[in-house]
Each structure stands twice: as structure tokens, then as C-alpha cells.
Write a structure and sequence with these properties.
Length: 418
């Protein structure tokens, strides 16, 4: 088979590969259903041991699951280059599904930590980085759109999975619900692996001419992790991602509490706001990824920082006049901005450092997300504990957005020099 024939076959198959990657991401996105499982699991363990644990006492389980994911986002990228996308995604999703099954068999917190915190957390990172990079590799002509769709499939789990998990909890009990989810994920992992194939480094979709062949831009050099880490551009990009995720997760992590405490919304109304936030977060990944294919990654990120400043201004002002409308507009805009960073960065990383090592490079870049996931929520809670109000936190978030905007303009000359 010639290269042209191979490219033609892969061009026909790539949408199927993208679909399989999205299904895998939907599965591992079930990690965000933890809040639905936490309360019933605490009751289950209380019944076994006569304790009085609450969902808050099990928060460590979810924290560790999120905290250890960065380890396998890096190692998953490395293994992608060694054994191929199909095997990495299969292993990661299988470990994640088995983690759910082990969690369903838990009789104490230690087993729950082994199942959910370690197996689900590590399996999540292992599969996620590879599904995203595979999607981007197969769509060099639509990197932003492919990255947006694949990351959105992960984000939409926070909307789809929790209500299903709640139904399963009520119908079968929390232990059996965990096991059912685990079995479904394991089956889907095997099916998805049959549709996924590793994308060749020199793949060019039929009918598309790479810009470097038309003289519009110079060819992007494939840089390995060591070369990327020696580049000043990498650190500017990493800090931009950290800043973007921090300002987004500061608000997202406490959205319901902010709505009730600062605006005076009821619990039910606050829940609707959180759902709207999740939808804008998901939509932002696809829309901003698609836009970045047309106006450029850095231009899209600059727009996201500017929009974030406007959104945070609305949120700060809404706390003064108790305007629910102003608050809802601001919170949805923040979801859109956060989605922009998640949707644009896979293609952004590939544009800057090439395709060949993009899995490992994006895994390393993903440290920025992990850092934002730690800094944002902790800073939001610290501001509230220190002042008794969430409003000052929005001023701090605005400062982060301004820093990100400055870094975006610093990126331009650094990138041109490279």
C-alpha cells in the first residue's frame, strides 16, 4: 500500500477513531460522578462499621484521584510513542473501569482509595492524554475542532453521568451501582480499542495541503520532551494554561456555594446554574477549538482572557447588587473561557512542538491544568475564610486574567523568534 492509499484509508476512518476516543473520554469522565456516590458510600461504610462518616469525610478519595492523574498523563504520553494509542487507551480505560468495580466491593476507606483514588485516577490520566493527542493527530487540518470535541466528550460526563448514577444508586444500591458502571466501562473500553489505531507521524488527510508545503509558514519541527523543556516558549504556554485554569476553577469549584451565599439563590436554582456552567464549559471547548482553527490559537486565547476579565467584573458587581441575571451571565462566560483553554491547548501544543511527540508533550503541558486544579479551589476557599465573602476572590481572578493576557502578548515575539 502506498502512502497516498494509506492516507486515503485513514482519512475515511478518522471520524470513527474520533468517535471511539470520545466514547472512551465519556467513560473516564465518570470520575466526576463521585459527588453522587460519596453520600451513599459513606452510609454503606457506616452500616458496616457503626461509624458516623459523611460525604465530606470521603473527600480525600476524590482529591487523590484528581491529584495523581498528572502522573499518568505524562507516562501515558511516553507509552503512546512506545506501544501505540490503541493499547494505551485500552489499558487506561480498563484500569479505570476495574477501579469502579473495586470501589463497589469496598468495605473500608482503604479499599475505596485503592479502587477510586488510585485505579480510577491513574487510569483516567493514562487514557485521557492519549485520546486527546490521537484525535488531534488525525485532524491536522482541524486541530482545534478535534481537540475541542475530544475534550468536550470528557467534560460532558459531568452533566450526563451524575443523574444516571443517582438512578442506579436508588435502584440497586451504591455498591452494585459502582459495579454496573465498571462493567459497562470495561466493555466499552474493549469495543473502543477495536476502532482506534495509531496515527502515522506523516499522515496527511486526502484533499488537504499542509501550510508548510504552500510556503505560508515554515515546517513545525518535532521536538521531544527534553527539547520542549529547554524552550522558553513552553514555560510561557505552561504559565498561561495554569493561569487560565486557576481563574476558571476558582469560580467553578465553588459555583453553587457562591450562588447561594453571595446572590441568595435557593439550592435548586444554584444547581441549575451549575448545570448551565457545565454546558457552557463543554460548548466552549468545541466552539473555541473550531474558532482557533480560523483565527489562530493565540488570538483565541487572548479573546478568552479578555472575556474572562469582563465575566469576573460582572461576577464582582453582582455580589454588590445581588443581581442574579448579572451573576448568571458572568458564570456562563467563565465556563466558556475555561472551556476555551481545555479545547485549544491540545492543538496549541501540537502546533508549537510538532506531532511526533505530541502525546508526551501534551501530558507534560497538562501539569498546568493540575496546578490550576489545586491553586484555584484552595485560593477561593482561603479568600472566603479570610474575608467572609467571595467577592474579593473575583478581583484576584481578574489579576490572574491580566497576567495571562500579558503572557499571551509575550508569547508572540518568543514564538516568532523560534
Amino acid at each position: 500500500m502506498t502512502i497516498q492509499e494509506r492516507n486515503a484509508a485513514l482519512t475515511k476512518r478518522r471520524w470513527l477513531v474520533l468517535f471511539a476516543c470520545c466514547v472512551a473520554n465519556l467513560c473516564i469522565g465518570a470520575i466526576y460522578a463521585w459527588s453522587v456516590f460519596a453520600g451513599p458510600m459513606a452510609e454503606h461504610l457506616n452500616g458496616l462499621h457503626g461509624t458516623a462518616m459523611t460525604a465530606a469525610d470521603l473527600a480525600i478519595v476524590f482529591s487523590v484521584a484528581n491529584g495523581d492523574a498528572f502522573i499518568t498523563t505524562i507516562s501515558g504520553g511516553w507509552f503512546d510513542n512506545k506501544i501505540g494509542s490503541r493499547k494505551v487507551i485500552l489499558i487506561g480505560t480498563l484500569v479505570f473501569g476495574l477501579g469502579f468495580i473495586v470501589s463497589g466491593l469496598a468495605t473500608n476507606v482503604f479499599i475505596l482509595i485503592v479502587g477510586f483514588s488510585l485505579m480510577c485516577g491513574l487510569g483516567n490520566g493514562f487514557a485521557y492524554v492519549c485520546t486527546i493527542s490521537t484525535a488531534v493527530k488525525f485532524f491536522p487540518d482541524k486541530k482545534g475542532l478535534a481537540g475541542g470535541i475530544s475534550t468536550a466528550s470528557f467534560g460532558i460526563s459531568s452533566v450526563i453521568i451524575p443523574p444516571i448514577a443517582n438512578v442506579f444508586n436508588e435502584a440497586f444500591g451504591v455498591c452494585l451501582a459502582f459495579i454496573i458502571f465498571g462493567v459497562i466501562i470495561v466493555v466499552l473500553a474493549v469495543l473502543c480499542s477495536l476502532l482506534i489505531t495509531t496515527c502515522p507521524d506523516d499522515f496527511v488527510p486526502t484533499g488537504w495541503t499542509p501550510p508548510e508545503l504552500t510556503g505560508e509558514v515554515s515546517r513545525v519541527e518535532d521536538k521531544n520532551a527534553k527539547q520542549m523543556l529547554s524552550s522558553g516558549v513552553f514555560y510561557v504556554m505552561l504559565i498561561m494554561l495554569t493561569v487560565g485554569c486557576t481563574l476558571g476553577l476558582m469560580t467553578i469549584s465553588e459555583a453553587s456555594s457562591v450562588a447561594q451565599t453571595m446572590i441568595g439563590m435557593s439550592t435548586g436554582t444554584a444547581a441549575l446554574v451549575v448545570s448551565a456552567l457545565a454546558l457552557f464549559n463543554t460548548g466552549g471547548r468545541i466552539i473555541c477549538g473550531w474558532i482557533s482553527d480560523r483565527i489562530g490559537r493565540i488570538n483565541t486565547l487572548i479573546a478568552a482572557f479578555v472575556l474572562a476579565i469582563a465575566a469576573l467584573t460582572l461576577l464582582y458587581l453582582s455580589g454588590g447588587n445581588k443581581s442574579a441575571v448579572m451573576f448568571c451571565i458572568g458564570i456562563c462566560m467563565i465556563g466558556l473561557c475555561y472551556g476555551a483553554f481545555m479545547g485549544v491547548y491540545p492543538g496549541f501544543t501540537s502546533d508549537q512542538f510538532g506531532v511526533k511527540y505530541s502525546s508526551l508533550n501534551y501530558g507534560i503541558m497538562f501539569i498546568g491544568f493540575s496546578a490550576g486544579g489545586i491553586i484555584g479551589p484552595m485560593l477561593m476557599q482561603a479568600m472566603f475564610n479570610g474575608t467572609g465573602s467571595y467577592r474579593p476572590a473575583f478581583l484576584v481572578s481578574m489579576a490572574f486574567a491580566v497576567v495571562g493576557l500579558i503572557l499571551a502578548f509575550i508569547y508572540r515575539p518568543l514564538s516568532r523568534r523560534k
